[in-house]
Specification:
Elements (H helix, E strand, L loop, with lengths): L2 H17 L11 H13 L12 H9 L10 E2 L3 E2 L1 H13 L7 H4 L4 E3 L9 E4 L8 E7 L2 E4 L8 E4 L3 H6 E6 L3
Helix pairs in contact: 1-3, 3-4
Length: 177
């Protein structure tokens, strides 16, 4: 990693951690949130409520993956990441929590969180392949999330307010209280 990338990464980590203490962003007004409330109780929590308290470790693990290559089926820094592999890796490293390597299956874990109540570390789901819950990322705070987007790209952060993400947002789940 070049010195410039290291400096950028350290500055970014500092700004994210400072932002974790700030107020949540303005809510994303999504009809999916209202209908997901109804569906969340039908899906259940998957019985995987993990009682670990939130810590900066999850965010540090996620941010450490920035710049790694997208790799379908990837789930480590050695192999690269796909979206659900990134999430599984981060939660395993930060909390020892084992998650399935599938965005849809991850969407059935934890508890539903309305967009207006998003907190750093929540999973955010999107419909990017004409299927609900086909893409997942980790919410960082201030309307941003981290994810492994697609082949040919690298793990990066995105703004959820961008039209592309706003129109594909499917909801969020909280795995860690």
């Amino acid at each position: 990693m070049t010195r410039l990338k290291q400096l950028f990464l350290m500055g970014f980590i500092g700004s994210v951690l400072a932002g974790c203490a700030s107020q949540p962003p303005a809510p994303i007004d999504r009809t999916a949130d209202r209908t997901a409330d109804v569906h969340a109780s039908a899906r259940g929590t998957g019985g995987e409520r993990h009682q670990a308290s939130r810590s900066p470790e999850l965010l540090l693990q996620a941010i450490a993956a920035v710049g790694f290559d997208y790799q379908r089926g990837g789930q480590s820094m050695a192999t690269g990441f796909d979206c659900s592999g990134l999430v599984a890796h981060v939660f395993k490293e930060a909390y020892g929590l084992l998650l399935p390597h599938n965005a849809k299956a991850q969407s059935e874990r934890g508890k539903f969180v309305p967009a207006r109540e998003l907190e750093a570390g929540d999973l955010v789901f999107f419909n990017t392949e004409r299927q609900p819950f086909s893409h997942v990322g980790i919410y960082l705070g201030d309307g941003r999330f981290i994810h492994a987007p697609k082949p040919g790209a690298v793990v990066r952060t995105e703004n959820m307010q961008l039209a592309y993400w706003r129109t594909r947002y499917d909801g969020a789940r909280r795995l860690i209280e």
